[in-house]
Amino acid sequence: MRRSIAQLSLLYVAAVVLGVASAWLWLTRVGMSGVDAVIWRTNLLAGSREADAYTRARISLGAVLALDRSETLYYTPEHDDEGNTLRAECRYRIDGTPPPARWWSITAYAADNFLFANAERRYSVSGENAPLDNQGRFMTLVGPNAADTDRSWIPTAGTGGMRLTLRLYGAGEPLQRDPGALAAPSVKRLDDCP
């Protein structure tokens, strides 16, 4: 039985649409593989030559550029300590001990992977500006509002999804060998948000 050109064209279009849709779902909806440090996950192939095509595409969609793990470890949580999805309208307290790295930062991103626009021009905290308490721990707030005097506050837009990234540049050798051993900061939601 011969198929008409119209039937073959329809079959071809359906195959292309199905292929593109399945790739998009894989890149945007399936969790990133990697190593967990409590709620924070790092992909050990980010920025490496060994990364497969899907990993490279995911990194391109979400991180634009990534360095190899010998230079930088990137950790991201999907949720807070209680398992709730991170949301820009909620307030969070992030605290922990400074990670063993030459330089580190925690940055908040909107769901579109861009920085939250804010009048304060505060987008992250780092080892350079995160105040430490008597025990050598840092604490920062992330959310749509905080006390006016809180310099470690990272403002969000107050609506939509949110993503956090912990970057460790020049991580110590023990952490390079075992990224899951990171003494990961906690991410606690402070209030009931809508």
List the helices and strands and how they pair.
Layout: H1 5-29, E1 35-37, E2 40-42, H2 53-63, E3 72-77, E4 92-96, E5 101-110, E6 124-126, E7 138-143, E8 153-155, E9 162-171, H3 173-177, E10 186-189
Parallel strand pairs: 7-8
Antiparallel strand pairs: 1-2, 2-3, 3-9, 4-7, 4-10, 5-6, 5-9
Give an overview of the whole structure.
This protein has 194 residues and is an alpha+beta fold. It has a single domain, classed as Jelly Rolls. It is built from three helices and ten strands; from the N terminus they run H-E-E-H-E-E-E-E-E-E-E-H-E. It has helices at 5-29, 53-63, 173-177, and strands at 35-37, 40-42, 72-77, 92-96, 101-110, 124-126, 138-143, 153-155, 162-171, 186-189. The strands form two sheets. It has a six-stranded antiparallel β-sheet. It is globular, with a radius of gyration of 20 Å. The termini are far apart.
Distinctive features:
single chain; 194 residues; alpha+beta; Jelly Rolls; six-stranded antiparallel beta sheet; four-stranded mixed beta sheet; 3 helices; 21% helix; 27% strand
